[in-house]
Design a protein that fits this description.
7-stranded antiparallel beta sheet, 9 helices, 26 strands
């Protein structure tokens, strides 16, 4: 009976703390569409991730323990191991304390000192219960301990959470993996795995604390009102993980750039510094239309297409500049007349920094044969979705059929439509053209000619 009462009291205690703490955020899962699939487990490995986005490096500073500054704030988030091994000592009593009663408490770093017995200690003030604690470094000196990139167990760095709230709340992101989570209820840390569409536009609706290893919990909402989240590492401060830990493909999605892409204007080109951007690698943030120099036609370009800037030539007669781009996969050339200075752009679609962002585009595997067709703007049987979009852009319409068959429809010139039919495995099965609705010419009906026949009776 006493055990039941204790358990109930502890549950109420943590519920009260989390309810009062705005760093604890949960998903609301009352609205689910078929676009989100609940899963129990999925062992599928993610593709390896390249260099993280410049956005992260510019906005989230990594702090080695050697460089911790007084006033840095952390939250106690114990994991299973921390329920057995105690982390903090109460300065007033000189005794080690259990981690669970400190769960969700905010610890403020107050520097480090050497005790009378020569042991190095890290000092903390708890904002939640207004007590002082220290973490004693085991066996070695402070300098040796921080040099090895160690940290303090249980502590999730709140600096990343605060910066993420300032930089990302309300922003549009794109999903970079299929694997996310939803909360089971508010008063526990239980969750369910979900699968969502990759490269899907979502909006950040809440940011809070996650875990020590992945301290920033980002909750997003898709256009159907579905909410899901990911706990991600951003600056990697006090993660307790090393670089090789992220080489495990299962952990890749817990890097910010493994789960989300930021849509941001950072292409600050103007008529004075444009030469410094020549040779830079960029990619499309949004679908756009630019001139293909090979076909001499304006081509629809999907988002995440990578280019190298070959030249920028400002116009003398207007505010635009001609930008020549080389596709990083095909090697083909494109040109676009766009405005470099955001202050001169009446329409955001005309502004270079709105359409393009720094960094490589989406990795796409192609064959030499398909690349030749793509350069000419043709779609071939066996093409993947990515190859079709490289050749024809994003579809204007999609028709879903039976047995996993679906068709992309593209508007062509002269009121023609291009139909690209995919089989159940996502490869092009056939292509054909047709007239747009309302423009099909009626065929002239041929008049029937009746020829009289004379019957002869054979005796």
């Amino acid at each position: 009976m006493k055990k039941l009462i204790f358990t109930a009291c502890m549950a109420l205690f943590f519920s009260t703390i989390s309810a009062q703490n705005d760093y604890i955020v949960k998903t609301s899962n009352s609205n689910k569409s078929t676009q989100m699939q609940l899963v129990e487990e999925d062992d599928e490995l993610l593709e390896s991730l390249g260099v993280e986005q410049d956005y992260i490096v510019q906005n989230f500073k990594y702090y080695s323990l050697c460089d911790w500054e007084e006033g840095m704030r952390f939250m106690v988030i114990p994991e299973k191991y921390d329920l057995v091994v105690k982390t903090f000592t109460d300065v007033a009593t000189g005794k080690l304390v259990n981690n669970m009663p400190l769960k969700y408490h905010v610890m403020v770093y107050k520097g480090h000192h050497k005790s009378l017995d020569g042991r190095d200690r890290l000092d903390f003030y708890c904002e939640t219960n207004r007590k002082n604690y220290y973490f004693e470094i085991p066996l070695i000196s402070f300098d040796d301990y921080c040099y090895e990139k160690n940290g303090v167990p249980t502590l999730a760095y709140l600096g990343d959470v605060d910066i993420a709230r300032d930089k990302l709340m309300g922003r549009t992101l794109y999903t970079k993996t299929k694997f996310y989570r939803i909360d089971v209820d508010y008063n526990s840390d239980d969750y369910r795995d979900v699968i969502v569409d990759e490269d899907m536009e979502v909006k950040v609706i809440a940011i809070g604390v996650g875990t020590r290893n992945f301290p920033v919990k980002i909750i997003v909402e898709d256009r159907h009102g579905n909410e899901f989240y990911q706990n991600v590492a951003i600056s990697k401060t006090n993660l307790g993980m090393r670089k090789e830990d992220f080489e495990d493909n299962d952990n890749t999605k817990y890097l910010f750039a493994g789960s989300f892409e930021v849509v941001e204007d950072v292409m600050a080109i103007n008529n004075y510094n444009y030469r410094t951007f020549i040779g830079k690698i960029i990619h499309t943030k949004y679908p756009t239309k630019i001139l293909n120099e090979t076909t001499r036609k304006v081509q629809s370009i999907p988002r995440l297409t990578g280019y190298q800037i070959e030249s920028i030539t400002p116009h003398k007669t207007d505010d635009k500049a001609t930008i020549r781009l080389k596709n990083t996969i095909l090697g083909s050339y494109f040109t676009a007349d766009m405005i470099l200075d955001v202050n001169l752009a009446e329409n955001q679609e005309d502004y270079f920094g709105y359409i393009f962002a720094p960094g490589p585009g989406k990795r796409i595997e192609t064959t030499e044969g398909s690349r030749a067709m793509i350069r000419a703007g043709h779609v071939g049987v066996g093409f993947s979705e990515d190859e079709v979009m490289m050749a024809a852009g994003e579809p204007d319409n999609v028709q879903n059929g039976e047995n996993g068959i679906y068709t992309w429809i593209f508007n062509r010139s002269n009121n023609k439509l291009l139909y690209v039919e995919f089989n159940g495995s996502g490869s092009v099965a056939r292509t054909y053209t047709g007239d747009a609705p309302g423009t099909k010419k009626e065929k002239k009906k041929k008049k029937k000619v009746i020829i009289p026949i004379t019957l002869t009776t054979v005796k």
